[in-house]
Design a protein that fits this description.
about 575 residues, alpha/beta, TIM Barrel, M1 Pyruvate Kinase, Domain 3, Pyruvate Kinase, Chain: A, domain 1, 3 domains, seven-stranded mixed β-sheet, 17 helices, 26 strands, Pyrv_Knase_brl
């Protein structure tokens, strides 16, 4: 899987003297990097969820591959999340994770299975067989034609395994039966397999199961639809057709506004990553599963290449398995802390916490620690060099460069202006969130305050407003801070902008005298006629003494990068 453009980390130390390393971190700036927390028994109370929201959780993951039939368990977590959002007045998006074509060991008795290094164990497709230390029945009809050969690896572990526990088995294939119904393996380590459902990963296996299991469909039509979930995380995405099938089912189930996150977690998904990225709304690199499909020395290549491809396409990308140690310990290892920082420098939009929050002893500490690391890494991220790298790769820095997408042209103009003028903030007016996504693609140093202007749509039978969905879904974008506009207070380029600047001042994002870059998308709306179309520009404002009105020079740049207006007089935005 080749990629164009150099793979690099955009690191510049904030203080060459290194004295800041010895200082306490005291930044109150919201982290640009987003955080997904998996909701489970360790964190599903209103109190703990409130603490996670205060710490910086922006997306809550409900993994229905765990206890898929126990929807009441997941509903409790979702209901408590809503209560926590009301208590903290913090916005959070809901992510529903599917089971998909995942293969599991069925240990219906729930009795622990003790395996010893060197022993032989048989993996069977007979789901009715009783699990034992010598026989592991799996939820897959046949392994015939799956590509399993002697010497291939099989991993068996508990849900959200960390890799360090003694509840995971590493098996090596010795032989495969002619009918593909059983595989004899040698156990590589002493372990005790615990739980009713154990995750299984076959190295280099071709999995032909449907991308949405029947249980997934039932969960979507009940839990998903009742809660109007914001994102569907599609487990084990293998190709673009998997996404098309999931999209068709969501649309038919009344979940047209739900976006799809493609989880790339096996060799097939990795090889088809470009078509997946082009078809997905965002991507998760599931390192836990992928790590069982690739040799350890190849994992970093897959990670850097995937992040680079997503960054170039402007598709949000998340990474899992970062501070596994914090499942049982209050601090991460040195390697884990460095890993989190490098993910930020390599362009990740966000981090996914799994076992750390689902069943960990320190869920809130894990969230706070990860975001403290990301905030420090962001302060060292060379935004300008990154912008130059992406625009070079897109061929936009040549004399004959041509950009056909007007919205992206405005996005590049906004980021360039904010960088050169050292603006404190970028304000984005958008209906769908696309303008914010394109600006976030270039990773500006400034926070991106995204004002969601409500969009009214109709399917011929009823009217709906997309504002709430767009605001929550914008939370997946690195650097984006979404707020919903009240369309009743006036035009997007007038009172709504003034209200947004007040919010920015209240949150400490701006101070009097700061410069602010405002980007307005080229969209025609019914409410204001051609207003948004005419306002498809980038404005440069200087804030007055109250932090809301603008004083001194105001410039307006069109999508071709031309200054179309420049004024010295005061301008009252109200």
């Amino acid at each position: 899987m080749a990629t164009s453009g150099a793979l690099r980390a955009f690191f510049t130390p904030t203080d060459p003297s290194l004295t800041h390393i010895l200082q306490e971190s005291a930044s109150t700036t919201p982290p640009s990097t987003k955080l997904v927390c998996t909701i489970g028994s360790a964190c599903n109370s209103v109190e703990t969820l409130s603490e996670l929201l205060e710490a910086g959780m922006t997306l809550a993951r409900f993994d229905l591959s765990y206890a898929p039939g126990d929807l009441a368990f997941h509903q409790t977590g979702y209901d408590n999340l809503q209560a926590a959002m009301q208590r903290t007045r913090k916005l959070c998006a809901a992510v529903m994770d599917t089971q998909g074509p995942e293969i599991v060991v069925l240990n219906w008795s729930g009795e622990p299975l003790q395996l010893s290094a060197g022993q032989t164990v048989t993996v069977t497709c007979d789901a009715s067989a009783r699990a034992s230390a010598s026989l592991l029945p799996i939820s897959y009809p046949s392994l015939a034609g799956a590509g399993l050969q002697p010497g291939r690896s099989i991993f068996v572990g508990q849900y959200l395994f960390t890799g360090s526990e003694t509840t995971s088995a590493y098996l090596t294939v010795q032989s495969v039966s002619e009918d593909g119904q059983s595989v004899d393996c040698v156990v590589g380590n002493d372990c005790v397999l615990e739980g009713v459902q154990l995750t299984v990963h076959f190295g280099a296996m071709s999995n032909a199961a449907p991308i949405l299991s029947e249980q997934d469909k039932r969960s979507l039509s009940t839990f998903g639809r009742a809660n109007a979930i914001d994102f569907l995380a599609l487990s084990f995405t293998r190709c673009a057709d998997d996404l098309a099938q999931a999209r068709a089912y969501l649309d038919g189930a009344g979940l047209r506004s739900t976006k799809i996150i493609a989880k790339i977690e096996n060799r097939e998904g990795l090889l088809n990553c470009r078509e997946i990225i082009a078809a997905a709304d965002s991507v998760i690199l599931s390192r836990g599963s992928m790590g069982n499909c690739l040799d350890p020395e190849k994992m970093f290549i897959a990670q850097k290449m995937l992040l680079s491809e997503c960054n170039y396409a402007g598709v949000p990308v998340y990474v899992t398995r970062v501070v596994d140690t914090m499942t049982d310990a209050p601090r991460p290892t040195r390697a884990e802390a460095t890993d989190v920082a490098n993910l930020v420098l390599d362009g990740a939009d966000g981090i996914v916490l799994g076992s750390e929050t689902f069943r960990g002893k320190f869920p809130v500490a894990a969230a706070e620690t990860v975001l403290a690391i990301t905030r420090e890494a962001e302060s060292c991220f060379d935004s300008y060099r990154y912008y130059q790298h992406v625009t070079d790769r897109m061929g936009l820095n040549s004399l004959d460069a041509l950009m056909n997408d007007k919205t992206e042209a405005l996005a590049t103009a906004a980021v360039r202006a904010a960088t050169k003028l050292r603006a404190a903030l970028i304000v984005v007016m958008t209906v769908t969130g696309r303008t914010a996504r394109l600006i976030a693609k270039y990773r500006p140093h400034q926070p991106i305050l995204t004002v969601i202007v409500p969009g009214i749509t109709s399917d011929g039978l009823k009217w709906s407003c997309s504002g709430d969905y767009a605001a929550r879904q914008s939370l997946q974008l690195r650097g984006v801070l979404p707020i919903c506009a009240d369309a009743s207070i006036g035009r997007p380029d007038g009172a709504v902008l003034s209200a947004a600047l007040r919010v920015a001042a209240e949150r400490g994002l701006t101070r009097p005298g700061d410069r602010v870059v405002v980007s307005q998308c080229p969209r025609v709306t019914q409410r204001w006629g051609d207003t948004m179309s005419e306002a498809g520009v980038v404005k440069i404002l200087s804030l007055g003494a109250d932090g809301v009105t603008t004083r001194e020079a105001t410039a307006t740049i069109d999508s071709a990068g031309h200054v179309v207006e420049s004024r010295e007089e005061d301008e009252d935005l109200v």
